[in-house]
Design goal:
Distance between the termini: 34 Å
Order of helices and strands: HHHHHHHHHHHHHHHHH
Number of strands: 0
Helix content: 55-70%
Structural class: mainly alpha
Number of helices: 17
Shape: globular
Strand content: under 5%
Largest sheet: none
Mean pLDDT: 95
């Protein structure tokens, strides 16, 4: 919590990867939904921007200062990120009851995960999706354990909200749909099922969830329309064509030498995805000239490799158990694995569509981060070597030391980084009041 508040305090509200202030200003000025081509981010679903516009208006009425009102909008994601940690704690305690060390390790890893920290201190709809997706996963697991109408309503509302926050939030609709499909397989219907909501509510949720994409398709006749259908800002961004993208290597040694975005690594898909997960690769918080940059980045990249190795160990152990009977008994785990796979593939699909380094965003995978945390917990629970208290306490210590050192470095060096970031600090938009 303290790490997120520090980043929020020191990071100005106009420091974001893309200009998400512009669509918020559009809602404030025009009181209506913009056309998908009205601005760079205006193609995005409306829920976050409507909420942010409401927060801005209330904050401005209370403070009468533009900057403070924008900081209030920035605080939305910081508050949501603290909520994510609370939900992750609930999920970890329910999946690993009585195993405090595993819960502590998972919370530590979640608390200091660099990509999550960066997103929590920016004005962007990405973190709203992370919160809603994590909430949806928690409600899904609760419903599987004990079906209740209130839990199903909450799940359907949060899943629909995901779809109305970002396009790839549509993937979360898988959760209520999977419950519906499970009941249909058992021969249930609206006429025969006493739990009628299990059939009716997911269908309604899908209709609400896809409504925004249907509206945009009616306007543009483009399925899953993007800002790059209207603007050419990224046209010259490398690699530039699919044949130039390297899908076969992780340039880890090169990354240790050149930890930030540059020619030596930007064409390597796995390198960009990994680097964006574990450090500020596109440097919006640090800059190339900062002292100690390679040391801090190197420590985070090594820590990332350790966590990745543990995830692989857990996946390999789990794959040995999987068969048709296992999937039938643990269908909920299969659904979560499918959801995580879907989010893991989002940046790959985006890169194939638009082969630029900005398409290789680890941010796209972040909504499924808690599923990967559960896989890490499974590894700590089942892999013999990782069951040792010394190993688990060691991982806990590495996570906390690396994470605290990382945030300390960022907040102390951030003022020196301004002026040398990978992109501009966005202009605060004009408002008609």
């Amino acid at each position: 919590m303290i790490l997120r508040l520090l980043l929020f305090y020191f990071n100005p509200p106009n420091n974001t990867y893309d200009d998400h202030l512009e669509p918020i200003a559009y809602y404030l000025n025009h009181h209506q939904r913009p056309a998908p081509n009205a601005c760079w981010e205006c193609y995005q679903p409306p829920l976050y921007y409507v909420t942010a516009a409401g927060v801005y208006r209330i904050a401005f009425l209370l403070t009468h200062t533009y900057y403070t009102a924008w900081k209030a909008v920035q605080a939305i994601n910081t508050v949501l990120s603290i909520g994510v940690l609370l939900i992750v704690c609930k999920i970890a305690r329910s999946v690993f009851p009585g195993q405090r060390r595993i819960v502590w390790v998972l919370l530590a890893v979640a608390s200091v995960f660099p990509r999550d920290l960066y997103a929590s201190a920016m004005i962007t709809n990405d973190y709203a999706l992370v919160f809603l997706a994590t909430l949806s996963i928690w409600l899904f697991l609760r419903y599987v354990r004990q079906p209740q109408l209130s839990v199903m309503v909450g799940l359907c509302l949060s899943a629909a909200a995901c779809a109305l926050t970002k396009q790839h939030g549509l993937l979360v609709l898988l959760l209520p749909v999977s419950i519906w499909w499970r009941y249909i397989q058992r021969g249930a219907s609206l006429k025969t099922s006493s739990n009628w909501w299990t059939v009716a509510l997911p269908i309604l949720t899908v209709g609400v969830g896809v409504s925004d994409e249907v509206w945009k398709w009616q306007l543009t006749h483009i399925l899953l329309v993007s800002n790059q259908h209207f603007f050419d800002y990224a046209r010259n961004q490398p690699p530039g064509n699919l044949s130039a993208v390297d899908f076969h290597s992780l340039r880890f040694h090169t990354l240790l030498q050149y930890p930030l975005l540059q020619r030596a690594t930007w064409a390597s898909y796995w390198t960009v995805l990994f680097a964006g997960s574990w450090f500020d690769y596109e440097y919006r918080y640090v800059a190339p000239q900062l002292p100690g940059l390679k040391t801090v980045a190197g420590a985070l990249y090594v820590y990332g490799i350790i966590v990745f190795a543990l995830l692989v160990a857990g996946a390999l152990h789990l794959l040995r158990l999987i068969n048709i009977q296992y999937l039938r008994r643990h269908w909920d785990k299969a659904v979560l694995a499918l959801l995580a796979t879907g989010y893991f593939l989002v940046p790959l699909v985006q890169t194939v569509r638009l082969p630029h380094f900005s398409s290789m965003k680890s941010q796209f995978v972040l909504p499924a981060a808690c599923v990967f945390l559960l896989l890490l917990g499974y590894a700590l629970q089942k892999v013999r070597l990782l069951q040792m208290p010394a190993v688990q306490y060691g991982l806990l210590g590495i996570a906390l030391i690396t994470g605290v050192g990382h945030v300390y470095y960022v907040v102390t060096q951030l003022p020196s980084a301004f002026g040398a970031l990978s992109g501009p600090l966005w202009q605060f938009p004009h408002l008609n009041f």
